[in-house]
Design goal:
With about 110 residues, the protein is α+β, with helices and mostly antiparallel strands. About 35% of the residues lie in helices and about 35% in strands. Strand 2 and strand 3 form a beta hairpin. Helix 1 runs antiparallel to helix 2.
Amino acid sequence: MMIRDETPLDSEAITAVTVAAFTGHPYSHHIEQYIVAALRAAQALTVSLVAEVDRRVVGHIAFSPVAIDGRSCDWYGIGPVSVAPECQRRGIGTALIREGLRRVRALGA
């Protein structure tokens, strides 16, 4: 598995993984892919990572800035975290979270 920054060519694969990851999930309203797209469009994805296995995107994580009372506070929201259903429970989500946290900490989070 390789974890790397999202590229513009990854957006369709990220959408597909996100939709698949949350399909049938009882606590989802199935809008996670729209959240990622909106954050990307707003240029609010401070850290956006994909996990690849055999050159295929199988996971994604997003970190975006959090403001309190309209002020930046060096905090970042995490999510969604998505892993293709057939790749879940293999540590991919954990690896994405750990690498994402390492990167936002390096930014001063």
